[in-house]
Amino acid sequence: MATQDEKTRNDSSSSDDVMEDQHMGIGKYLATRLPTLKPPMAKAPNPIKLLRLLNTQQWLFFLVAFLAWSWDAFDFFTVSLTVTELGEQFDKETSAITWGITLVLMFRSVGAVIFGIASDRYGRKWPFIVNNILFIVLELGTGFCNTYSQFLACRALFGIAMGGLYGNAAATALEDCPEEARGIISGMLQQGYAFGYLLATVFSRGLVGTTSHGWRPLFWFGACPPLLIILFRLCLPETKSYRERADFRKANGNVAGTFIAEGKVALKRHWLLLTYLVLLMAGFNFMSHGSQDLYPQMLQNQYNFSHDAVTVTQVVANLGAMAGGTIIGYSSQIFGRRFSIIVMCVVGGALLYPYGFVSSKSVIAAAFFEQFCVQGAWGVIPIHLMELSPGSFRTFVVGTSYQLGNLVSSASSTIESTIGERFPLPPKGKTKRYRYGLVIAIFMGCVYAYVIVLAFLGPEYRGRRFDVAHDSDLEEVGLRRNSRDQTRDSSEAERPPRKDWDV
After folding, report:
1. What is the pTM of this model?
2. Which of 39, 41, 128, 261 is the most exposed place for a label (fewest CB within 10 A)?
């Protein structure tokens, strides 16, 4: 475990990196991208020792965030896993049904803005609970849809609810997490996405087409666990980091005014960084959705896999994803965030051929390692975004950058399915078949190259402290307020004494 002196040096170095990047010219900044990519080879304790650093409350915060993020993914993938059944129900082509996926991705950015600001202003707890209440209502609503228009409307509204969760979950799980354990906890948290996908795959096999209600029981079931998650969150307090910021705002006498002042400072100082985060998350969302959303359809349509074979392949792929996210999240604490992302993109690109072109059951191995790489890179993201984000708007920035990236990538499954229809295969009976594997490989190759370039060009603040004492934005807000107070006091001192007859 790192000594106190090492922690102090790391904190100081991280703070210096933040300030230096903010005042550096473009030319000098670009010149530092290659040298700073060198792995720091930081000492990291045994993973078990790292996990033991978390106290009971920190573990509970992580667990409630993990469960909520897992069910967010479950709810999202209910559509991609029932594309065929939904198409038959509403008499639509695959490309039309995938608009249900696209609308969720498009409207999630709206939810991220609304719930992100609410979480930074009023706390993590109650916006989190409202999110999950909406999950229950809208997942039930989707299960009762009878027309295509109703289906699209429910998914659009669902997108708003789902959009508010990611930033809140990341802040809840990581704000109070010990610095040494951030990498591995980040990787574990992100794998809630893969775990939710795994659960959706398993339950869709058990619930879809096994009753007279067809695809509907999967959506009805999806409305149940959020109730338990709500009860879990009600039992926990606000995070320590948020309480510190709330106390700072109260100490300044005007909570709303201080919050607005923090926002002005954050936008003025970090607008370029916020733009970069949206572009980065667009690439990451293209990476995950491009490799996953249409993959079950590819296995079934192009390679004639049975439902059982598709389920087994998806389960193995998600086990790879969960392993990759946890291992690479931990490794990023040693090798750095950017370096870890780039390595995973390079290896993932090399695996695209077997991932999309192996037609036998051996594709299971390729699926495992491809998703190991995709979610390995993703495992770095929660803590990377948290460390890059301004402290006062951490939930808003993490959630909104992630969901705006989702918005940019929202048409990925529709793009792939539409392009795939230009590469037809001989039909199987009345079923049209397409070369989806070719489309996924080309699409993902472009996405990997894009993410490598952005990760190379971007900043990294590994080890940044999240407490109020190390927040330079709050320091500037305090200095501005003190300056205004001094000016007001000086004006009052220079004002002539008031006469009794003055009006």
Report:
1. 0.79
2. 41
Q: What is the 3-state secondary structure (H, E, C) of 191-233?
A: CHHHHHHHHHHHHHHHHCCCCCCCCHHHHHHHCCHHHHHHHHH
| Residue 92: both structure tokens together | 């639509």
Pairing of strands 424-428, 431-434: antiparallel
Q: Looking at this protein, which amino acid is placed at residue 205? A: R
The tens digit of pLDDT for each residue in 421-473 reads 888 888 888 788 889 999 999 999 999 999 999 999 999 988 887 766 665 65
| Burial of 319 from C-beta contacts in 10 A (0-12 / 13-18 / 19+) | middle
The DSSP code sequence of 388-412 is HS-GGGHHHHHHHHHHHHHHHTTTH
- State the DSSP code for 360: S
Q: How far is CA 45 from CA 26, 53, 184, 379, 418, in A?
A: 37, 11, 11, 19, 48
Separation CA 32–CA 128 (nearest Å): 39
Handedness of CA 205, 207, 208, 212 (dihedral sign): positive
How far is residue 250's CA from residue 258's CA, in Å, rounded to a whole number?
A: 9
Burial bucket for residue 221 (CB in 10 Å: 0-12, 13-18, 19+): middle
Dump pLDDT digits (tens) for 59-81: 999 999 999 999 998 988 888 78
Residues 6+ positions from 246 with CB-CB distance below 8 Å? 123, 238, 255
The answer to whether 340 touches 325, Cβ cutoff 8 Å, is no
